[in-house]
Design brief:
The complex is a heterodimer of chains A (242) and B (216). Chain A has 242 residues and is of the alpha/beta class. Chain A has a domain at 90-156. Chain A is built from nine helices and ten strands. The two termini of chain A are 36 Å apart. Chain B is an all-alpha fold and 216 residues long. Chain B has eight helices and no strands. The radius of gyration of chain B is 21 Å and the shape is flat. The chains are: A alpha/beta (242), B mainly alpha (216).
């Protein structure tokens, strides 16, 4: 059974339908890269998976938990689904270490000592050992985003959602963040990424999803799809990107 | 003309100033406490709480403080409940202050970027945990300057309590004028004392504002 199952999901803002029946299966350990033009509904789809957005029809389940049916406690769901944002969204009044420790100590009631040890280990994992006491404003964009990744990993999620996490970064800082994501992928973390990094999608992704006008227009193995797009829309999109 | 020398007038005014300061402090503290409750109701997920809070805020912001004082002092007396000027002034100023502070603080809470809510929500924090650990600590920092600024309004607002017979700075001024017939001298002194109380507050508020802007 797939870890994340999306069945015919529809969502509209007023009269405008942004998701027009999207279905997608994500298995454990998959690295799914969602690409597409802005406005194609890719970010909205991602945000439906952890309940940041509601949807009107269809069904989403994560690890057997139904999302958005009003019965599943979103809090329980979110302990299993991590999310990293384009704008990092670190808490500016807390240090890097405190950002990571917040959810474990508040939500899971972990001991301060344990949480601190884990935060230090996670910072080391993302290459930021020694930055525990730095405030977000003292860190570069790339460093902030790596702290944000560490923060979401602190809840030991089964799936990590990444919403254009390198789009707000200066070009020279993109790679340090992608390297961390690549490492997570190699460790078997299930990842769903909305991204504009085509090279990354091709090299690291196990599945490519091309969204167009609120639908999954094409999906399959990244290398094959990039080499032989089946639809003119994807061909054009990939052509524009390269 | 009279036996009241300048120094005696000043001395009496300064003695009465103690009550202006005390009333301001008490109104500000209790108004702040009620204001915090109002704020939490105003930004809560419960529609009932929000509507009640909005109603309260609109009511006390939309009517003159003087009318509120009259209602607490004369209005309540109609129900055969004895209300001292002290209690009436304290209550009216508390209600009035809390309405304005709640509204000032709501602005601060709403100025926190949406991403902060989304990030903390994604980390499985409940609404109140988000408030307690993420939103309010940041909003508090923004709120300090306008809150100190508003305290000036509270100090000046206490002057109205003179009308229901509470002897603070303004009332003392009126009484002294009645015996000395030196309105210009007496009320100039009264105004100067208010200024001495308020100017440091507004100066400090401006300074705090500046400091916050640099940090951003």
């Amino acid at each position: 059974m797939s870890l994340v199952s999306i069945r015919d999901v529809r969502k509209s803002y007023g009269a405008q339908e942004v998701l027009k029946g999207v279905s997608l299966d994500v298995g454990r350990g998959d690295v799914v890269a969602i690409i597409g033009r802005s406005g194609s509904g890719k970010s909205t789809l991602l945000r439906c998976i952890n309940g940041l957005e509601t949807y009107q029809a269809g069904a989403i389940t994560v690890d057997g938990m139904a999302v958005g049916d009003g019965k599943t406690d979103l809090r329980t769901l979110r302990r299993h689904v991590g999310m990293v944002f384009q704008q990092f969204n670190l808490f500016p009044h807390l240090t890097a270490g405190e950002n990571i420790m917040l959810a474990p100590t508040v939500v899971v009631k972990e001991q301060k000592g344990e949480a601190r040890a884990m935060a230090e280990a996670l910072l080391e994992k993302v290459g930021l050992a020694g930055k525990f006491d730095s405030y977000p404003s003292q860190l570069s964009g790339g460093q902030q985003q790596r702290v944000a990744i560490a923060r979401s990993l602190a809840m030991r999620p089964t799936v990590l959602l990444c919403d254009e996490i390198t789009s707000a970064l200066d070009p020279e800082l993109v790679n340090e963040v992608l390297k961390v994501v690549e490492q997570l992928a190699s460790e078997g973390m299930t990842l769903i990424l909305v991204t504009h990094e085509m090279r990354f999608a091709r090299e690291v992704g196990t599945k490519l999803v091309f969204m167009h006008q609120g639908r999954v227009h094409e999906e399959g193995p990244p290398k094959a799809l990039f080499a032989n797009p089946a639809t003119p829309e994807l061909a054009q999109f990939v052509g524009h990107q390269n | 003309m009279s036996d009241f020398s300048f120094w005696i007038i000043l001395q009496n005014l300064l003695l009465a100033t103690r009550w202006t300061i005390l009333l301001s402090l008490i109104a500000f503290v209790s108004g702040g406490f009620v204001g915090l409750l109002l704020l939490l109701a105003r930004v809560s997920h419960s529609k009932t709480l929000r509507v009640l809070s909005i109603g309260y805020i609109e009511l006390f912001q939309g009517t003159p403080l003087l009318m509120q004082l009259f209602l607490f002092f004369f209005g309540v007396a109609l129900f055969d409940i004895e209300v001292s000027p002290w209690v009436a002034a304290w209550l009216a100023l508390t209600f009035w202050t809390s309405a304005f502070l709640a509204e000032i603080w709501r602005g601060c809470v709403e100025s926190i970027p949406k991403g902060q809510w989304e990030a903390s929500e994604s980390l499985a924090l409940t609404y109140w945990e988000q408030m307690r650990y993420v939103i309010l600590p940041q909003a508090l920092k923004i709120a300090v300057a306008p809150t100190v600024g508003f305290s000036v309004q509270v100090v000046k607002g206490t002057a109205l309590a003179s009308i229901i017979g509470f002897v603070e700075l303004t009332k003392a001024g009126t009484m002294l004028n009645n015996v000395t017939f030196q309105p210009f001298l007496v009320y100039s002194l009264v105004a100067l004392i208010y200024f001495a109380l308020c100017f440091p507050l507004s100066w400090y508020s401006k300074r705090l504002e500046g400091r916050l802007n640099v940090a951003r």
